[in-house]
Design brief:
The longest helix is centred in the last third of the chain and has 16 residues. The chain has two domains: 91 residues, ADP-ribosylation fold; 95 residues, no CATH class. 36% of the residues are buried. It starts with a strand and ends with a helix. It is α+β, with helices and mostly antiparallel strands.
């Protein structure tokens, strides 16, 4: 079995008010492995990844993070994972990821795919703390709009408006190897959150 992570409401419900019980295994018999469908259950392969993308995937309710067991992952977009069967094991303590952490993660992930020289110069200055002004961010934002590569365009947006998960989602689309992307993303999240 693989350990994974899932957000549930205090009433132990998930998407579409699906009701879970601790210790019980739930299985979907429908064929297919399409992400975000009734063919699969959704989860994350790391608790920090779950916390980082939570604002993009869930809103409007309080959620608790649970450790779960899955027999295998049958699909992934690099951010979330899906399986046909899941068993909720126990509630775990949620990590705190600050807005500054989120921005730094978004910028570092966007740097994995960004080729725009002006954007990278801005990103390096932001990461070192040399220049975090809104004027510089706006300049980088418009420079990236010329190439319109959404992954670093969104990273600048994240730095100004703190919507980091969107930038990371765009960068994930650039990678054909979702496992490689997931590994790099988790390394970045762990490194940034340890500061």
């Amino acid at each position: 079995m693989i350990t994974a992570y899932k957000f549930l409401t205090p009433q132990l419900t998930s998407h579409n008010d699906f009701q879970w019980k601790l210790g019980e295994t739930y299985t979907i018999d429908k064929p297919g492995n399409r992400m975000c469908s009734k063919q699969v259950f959704h989860c994350y392969n790391h608790p920090l990844l779950a916390e980082f993308v939570m604002p993009m995937h869930l809103s409007g309710k309080d959620y608790d993070l649970y450790k779960i067991e899955v027999p295998e992952f049958i699909n992934s977009d690099g951010l979330k994972f899906v399986s046909k069967s899941q068993k909720v094991i126990e509630k775990i303590e949620r990590s705190v990821i600050t807005n500054e952490h989120r921005i730094e993660i978004a910028i570092r992930v966007a740097k994995l795919v960004c080729v725009n020289v002006e954007w990278n110069a801005w990103a390096d200055k932001w990461l070192t703390g040399e220049d975090r002004s809104e004027e510089s961010a706006a300049s980088a934002y418009y420079a990236s709009a010329v190439d319109y590569a959404p992954y670093y365009y969104a990273a600048v947006y994240a730095a100004v408006y703190v919507y980091a998960a969107s930038a990371v989602d765009y960068a994930a689309r650039y990678f054909t190897d979702k496992d490689e992307f997931n590994k790099k993303l988790i390394e970045i999240i762990e490194m940034v959150c340890k500061k």
